Amino acid sequence: MKNQIILCFLTICCTAATPACPQIEHSIESSDAQSLHVLNRLTFGPRPGDLERVKGMGVTCYIEEQLNPSSLPQAAEVSAYLQSHEDLSMTPAQLYLTYGRPVQAMVGGGVSNDPDSQRQLQRVVRENYGKVVDDFSGEHIVRAIYSPRQLEEVMTDFWFNHFNVSKDKGLGHVWAGSFEDLAIRPHALGKFRDLLGATAHHPAMLFYLDNWQNCVPGGEPLYQGQQTKPQGTGINENYARELMELHTLGVAAGYTQEDVIALARILTGLGIPSRRDYRQMSADTQITYVFNPRRHDPASKVFLGKKIAGSGEHEIEEALDLLASSPATANHISYKLVQYFIADDPPKTAVAACAQTFQRTGGDIKAVLRTLFQRHEFWDPQYRSAKFKSPQRYLTSALRASALLTEPGRPLFSFLLSTGQPIYGCLTPDGYKNTKDAWLNPDGLLKRVTLANEMSTGQMAGARGRAADPRRVVNAIGKGMEAKTRAAFAKAPEGMKSAVLLSSPEFMKY
């Protein structure tokens, strides 16, 4: 039966994975259709009871509730997870001292290639880097599944990819989860300038894009007393370039290489505390970065046509102000938001409207989203179920739809790794894509079908029970089930009906 379901699914995908988008005039849709659309786009998929709740309160009230998440009490599952993992409340300094320093000390002392030494190294890495990554990854999944503040989590996912850092580069293992918790989530629905500043001063970003090495030529080296060539005594453009190309203006904004160099000079001296600094810090210190004036270029600069007088750390804030307030930034951010919430090929009219709100409100993310959700393009039937789920969204939506209880551990992480989207695992600074072309492939689809079968038959590792009630998944699909899926669903044994729905083309889209 499992092979029949896989064959049926792949046959349907050949005809339905790339649906035509007829030009349908915007009209008032049924309450069911509107409610399901809102749940699909503002959340990681409906849970049992969500559809009825949204229909009862109305989509407008639901949107406003999600735009104001502080009014919603946190889920007990989220609170319990946070309380049971003490590293989730650690400062970046505590995370480094507890999980980063032991590994660095062992590697720095030299590790021989004999089997015993290598096994000891792997054990230390697993107990330090591995533990902290797993704990924060588990938090990410638990929040996505259980938090009633779904839009906040959806936007946290959006912004993390926009300001991507990777766990797989050095100390990224220690700080990637903290970056999400301290720099991203608190500002996910706030002011873009605050979000930009928080990401610019978190050690995960400073380490990932190498600004900790960015120094005026001839400035103070990173490590004192070295007998070898001093490290970090020259201009490093990595962060400056991505700050403009990815985080703010966009690649087509018209800035020059001279602007990149000028911004890199402005950013000199902004870095992370040294090992010695960390050792001297108190356990509760909230310091996330240091500014070393002896590594900073004190000369005046011309950036984006504006003269910035040499004033030390204040230059950085002035440059971030310029970037955040640029019309190019408003357009770049709006394009990505419309692509994320409406269509892979974003309608230009919606982008323009959001960009106008961005500029008018000084980068108020909540106001931009409100404009987006009020646009007729957001409600246009041609864009409904037109987005293809990434592996993370598929996994989360399947767990939410089936209400299957599972521990956020290795089995879930392994699925995401095998489908190309491990949490905090994107190596490139542009983050994971959210378009169909990035994720629609035969291997990824087959892994989703396999997961759907495991969920439905009780064979999913780490899960308690099975997704046996197909009515839960039917509500997550709505009335848009195609004839081929209905036929496969009708023929399937009772214990496999949820598998048919979870592996259907309709459930792959949102």
Unreliable spans: 2-29, 225-229
Enumerate how many helices there are, as a single number. Answer: 27
Structural class determined from secondary elements: mainly alpha
Major β-sheet annotation: 2 strands, antiparallel
Strand tally: 6
Beta-strand portion reads under 5%
Terminal CA distance reads 27 Å
Q: Mean pLDDT, as a whole number?
A: 89
What proportion of the residues is helical, as a percent range?
A: 55-70%
CA gyration radius, whole angstroms = 24 Å
Biggest sheet, strands in spatial order? 1-2
Structural domain tally: 4
- Broad shape: globular
What does this protein structure show overall?
By secondary structure, this protein is mainly α. The protein folds into 4 domains: 180 residues, no CATH class; 119 residues, no CATH class; 91 residues, no CATH class; 57 residues. The chain has 27 helices and 6 strands. The strands form 3 sheets. Strands 1-2 form a two-stranded antiparallel sheet. Strands 3-4 form a two-stranded antiparallel sheet. The two termini are 27 Å apart. The N terminus is likely disordered.
Write the layout of secondary structure elements.
Elements: H1 2-16, H2 31-42, H3 50-57, H4 59-67, H5 76-83, H6 92-108, H7 115-146, H8 150-162, H9 172-184, H10 192-200, H11 203-208, H12 238-247, H13 257-266, E1 270-271, H14 275-280, E2 290-291, E3 301-303, E4 306-308, H15 314-325, H16 327-341, H17 348-360, H18 365-374, H19 376-379, H20 391-402, E5 405-406, H21 410-418, H22 436-439, H23 442-457, E6 463-464, H24 470-477, H25 483-491, H26 497-502, H27 505-508
Antiparallel strand pairs: 1-2, 3-4, 5-6
Helix pairs in contact: 1-23, 2-3, 5-7, 6-7, 6-9, 7-9, 7-20, 10-15, 12-13, 16-17, 17-18
